[in-house]
Write a structure and sequence with these properties.
Blueprint (H helix, E strand, L loop, with lengths): L1 H30 L10 H10 L14 H33 L7 E5 L5 H7 L5 E6 L14 H20 L5 H6 L7 H13 L1 E11 L5 E3 L2 H6 L23 E8 L7 E7 L4 H6 L2 H8 L3 E5 L12 H10 E6 L6 H6 L2 E7 L13 H12 L20 E7 L6
Parallel strand pairs: 1-2, 1-7, 2-6, 7-8
Antiparallel strand pairs: 3-4, 3-5, 5-6, 8-10, 9-10
Helix pairs in contact: 3-5, 4-7
């Protein structure tokens, strides 16, 4: 009898312990708030791809006049075809001869504006691309509610602004400023045109903020609704103030080859001022970049920022983490590159920096002239970024010096 009572007590104790464990787990789960999934604007991206980049098969809303879109596409498709025929056919084979084997498939492009186009031209095998610039990506949702008048006006703006990118392979500061307002997201539109030119299609579109530790927090639909009235801030006092929510500053665009074959690739754009003073306030940007490991880098038409001591943080990041870089004369000056163990090869001609009265130092222009003069002239048949003082094409390769063997 005592044995039966003891066994019953043991069984009851085990049951009570089990129930307490379940209750504890349930309470812990209840205490943790549910993490909402990131909002995905893939549908908006695909519609913008159809309307703005004239590619893909997204259905057009009945309210939009297809003739307006067709007129825009007639102009844009001719420009894209010309870019492929005149520029891409020269630049891409040449750039392929410069890239070493076993290059990292992660690319960082500071001062890149909306120039995913050149990133894919320069590094067509890249799997992850990060561009950084003062310009913010933009709100993709307005395409869902445009009437014909607003659509026509907006596409006219796109036609005027994207011409420089598809003809001179460059965008002016004034053009880039204009992308920060309007019914169509200017920077995102540039990204989608770049995909169309290179034969890719968008798959998903998410927005994020960069945390102080360098991790990325992707916004949920609820978070974006809560940020509707918080307009994004211009990243520089001379830049146009955005007319969209701060939620749409930084974008992550997943894309793949048209037709769905091949692995997904990722383009992230971070709207950031890369001056030292700003990076001190927002250290997560550099920490995010450092988390990418070894990278291939590029820059062009970058206002000579990498010459400037006020941008030494981003310059030092590149020197510490890149293994290879293609640039124009706005790249890293020889004295910094050589001190960090890099060698530089010159292409085309460089007769001095055309700085528009804002050169940080003539010293680096002289260094680049000496560098070009010290090497045999290697022909360059296309423009890559700025022209020099005599209108010459020029290009610079910066690569790590080979390790000497004993």
């Amino acid at each position: 009898m005592k044995l039966c009572i003891s066994s019953a007590r043991i069984r009851f104790g085990i049951l009570l312990t089990f129930l307490c464990m379940i209750a504890t787990i349930s309470c812990a789960r209840a205490a943790r708030p549910e993490v909402a999934p990131p909002a995905d604007f893939g549908a908006e991206a695909k519609l913008l791809y159809r309307v703005v980049a004239c590619s893909g098969d997204a259905a057009l809303p009945a309210r939009l006049d297809p003739q307006i879109i067709n007129a825009h596409c007639q102009t844009l498709k001719a420009r894209m075809a010309r870019y492929r025929r005149v520029y891409l056919s020269r630049a891409q084979p040449f750039l392929a001869t410069l890239r070493p084997d076993n290059l990292p498939d992660t690319v960082v492009y500071p001062f890149g504006g909306g120039d995913l186009l050149a990133a894919l031209t320069t590094y067509p095998n890249a799997r992850r691309i990060t561009t950084l610039s003062l310009e913010l990506s933009g709100d993709p949702r307005r395409i869902m509610s445009l009437d014909d008048k607003r659509l026509s006006d907006s596409l006219d703006v796109v036609d005027r602004s994207i011409g420089g990118l598809l003809t001179a392979n460059d965008s002016t500061s004034e053009t880039l400023k204009s992308t920060q307002q309007g019914d169509l997201p200017g920077q995102l539109s540039y990204f989608l045109v770049a995909l169309a030119v290179h034969g890719y299609e968008p798959v998903s579109l998410r927005y994020f903020r960069v945390e102080s530790n360098g991790s990325l927090h992707y916004y949920s639909e609820g978070e974006i609704r809560g940020m509707e009235n918080r307009l994004a801030s211009a990243q520089h006092r001379e830049w146009t103030s955005p007319d969209f929510s701060e939620a749409f500053a930084n974008s992550e665009l997943a894309f793949r080859p048209m037709g769905g074959q091949g692995p997904l690739r990722i383009h992230r754009h971070i709207g950031a001022n890369l001056a030292n003073s700003s990076l001190k306030k927002h250290p997560g940007v550099l920490r995010y970049l450092e988390s990418q490991g070894r990278v291939a880098a590029m820059t062009k038409a970058a206002s000579y920022c990498l010459w400037n001591s006020r941008f030494s943080f981003i310059r030092n990041y590149l020197l510490a983490n890149m293994v290879f870089m293609i640039s124009d004369g706005t790249g890293i000056p020889p004295e910094f590159a050589h001190q960090a163990g890099f060698v530089q090869e010159t292409y085309g001609r460089f007769n001095g920096a055309k700085c528009f009265d804002d050169c940080p130092s003539d010293r680096y222009s002289d260094q680049f002239q000496d560098l070009w003069a010290s090497q045999p002239e290697r022909k360059l048949g296309f423009r890559y970024g700025y022209l020099d003082t005599k209108g010459s094409y020029h290009l610079l390769v910066t690569r790590r010096a080979p390790v000497a063997t004993p």
